[in-house]
Amino acid sequence: MDCNLRPYQEEVVQAALRGENSIIWLPTGGGKTRTAVYITKKHLETTANAKVAVLVNKVHLVDQHFAKEFRPYLGSTYKIAAISGDSNEKDLFGCLVKASDLVICTAQILENALINMEEEKHVELTDFTLLVIDECHHTQKESVYNKIMGRYVEKKVRKEGNLPQILGLTASPGTGGNKQLDKAVEHVLQICANLDSVIVSTKEFTPVLQKVVPRPKKQYDIVERRTLDPFGDHLKAMMLMIHEYMPPTVSRSLREMGTQEYEADVVELEKEGVKKENRLIAQCALHLRQYNDALLINDTVRMVDAFRGLDEFYNSRKTKLLDGTDIFLQGLFDENRVELKQLASNDRYENPKLAQLQCTLQEEFNDENSRAILFSKTRRGTHCLFDWVNSNPELQRVNIRAGILTGAGTGANHMTQNEQKETIKHFRTGILNLLISTSVAEEGLDIPECNLVVRYGLLTNEIAQQQASGRARAMNSVYSVVAEEGGREMRRELTNDQQKITTKKTNQQQQKITHSEFRRKISKLQKIAVMTRIQAERKKDERKQRYSPSQVQFQCRECFLLVCSGEDLRKIENAHHVNINPEFERHYIAGGQVVLEKSFEDWEPGRVISCKNCGKEWGMEIKFKKVVTLPCLKIKSFSMKTPGGKSTPRQWKDVEFQDCAAL
């Protein structure tokens, strides 16, 4: 099959066809992936011993790029392998690379293969002649893309040869949150340095591009602030009672209830409580976060959704009350439960944003061929909106058939990768006509042209905003922002509009920089990045050597029960930390079977494990080599006691003792 390009695509591929490292900047729907297919085809035809890797940042994009783009154009001539985290071939990645002309994989799989020294799994960057990096604006800070490119840049700075050509793809490099033009230019230059590439966008064929990618009509569906919110007020009164239960110095430091800032404050407060072994503060902070979540849900969806979340939380805890703090917190909710439930079911005080959202959806779905995506911030929010749509008689009357699309994972409200694929397939074929989605649908997904995209209760950056609006590709489509008058979402959306203008200006500014000046700036940024990375690695190694495993004691994060020592731990597949001390078994109870979609080389999941004393979930059992069952621990469920004090690491890489031996 011929891979024909439009004039603006022809223009942006020229640098890559000359063998130069480049970032293709085209809007969502402009055909970035098709340009990558074209460049890959030419590269394979003209380069001796060519080997190409296409890297994506989301699992579902592996299959999509393979089935919709690369296989149709290259599959009859070249050997292509598509590998994601749920495919067994990842364990033989090194062998697969040797046997293939082109591999399409998640960036994490390549990163794992660069680290793993087993022959059948290991690869080097120099094994490839071309690296294609999808959604390459993520190549910054601690992202997997930047870890891979960090190695590349280090080799380049050290003048090591045979490095692959780089091709980045993006709908927008963004501004890095900078409002000042010079700072935004610095951000874009840093992305260029990280990818060792120059940005190319169309200059000659902008009108053609605009015709191919129609811009949706943007409308602000503004609602007035709730005049009365007795349910929210009652929650705040209960939170104040918890504040009064804590020492006065603690509650004075907390910011406004019902905000992300308040959430950040109570997360830090819980950590402080754990470090000081002050269970009163740690538990109050934990419960205040639940109430704050309820306020945020009340502000976004229905009062009953906010009430249900709290009710489920307290129902799960009532059999494990350990002390006076637990009794006070449980009692506070139980005493107010009936009144909260009554307030939540009073339609007079319902969220006005939902009435506006209903109008927006009804208007568009009067046309039976309508397709829409409704973007919400959280997984839980998507489920609440799904329930609302399905229980709303007016929306059912216009034949809305809704489905949920959220990120893959194993927790509550996560989807399996197969469920994601099924939902996208149903939306493509028209079985579903409304997708209620988190940001997972913003980037890269090949979904049908929509005539309505709604951003509902979202605070994101200008890149996400552009990608979301780019999903509205049908002619005369509408991009709607449902927000409260003068609210945070509205302010952020207007800021994003301004940032988009700044992004355009940064591109113009960058075009003015001479080639030699650009190279000088990039080279300087790369040398700084290499030095910074070496220093960070040194500090990380020092932190890892701070204590020996025998000096570290693990406590349950919720009840502070001392359960094991660092000496009891071993690692499986260089990632999963298991406890090999048989004595540990007396501290936990096993619950339901864990079901994972993926299969693993040396182990399979067992049951969920929880603290016998307080019920805190600790992780799961692992059946290792079908011989022995071992408890595998989630670091977030524990605090660590060391000679230097207590800590609450979020990830195993943050612990301050020497690495566990492999099992």
Q: Gist?
A:
The chain is an alpha/beta fold and 663 residues long.
Describe this structure in words.
It catalyses: ATP + H2O = ADP + phosphate + H(+). It holds the Pfam family RIG-I_C. This is Probable ATP-dependent RNA helicase DHX58 isoform X2. It is a single chain. This protein has 663 residues and is α/β, with parallel strands linked by helices. Helices cover 44% and strands 17% of the residues. The strands form five sheets. It has a seven-stranded parallel sheet, sandwiched between helices. A six-stranded parallel sheet has the order 8-13-12-9-11-10, with helices on both faces. The chain has a four-stranded antiparallel sheet with strand order 15-14-22-23, with helices on one face. A hairpin with a 5-residue loop joins strand 19 and strand 20. Helix 13 packs antiparallel against helix 14. It is globular and about 75 Å long. The model has no long low-confidence stretch (mean pLDDT 91).
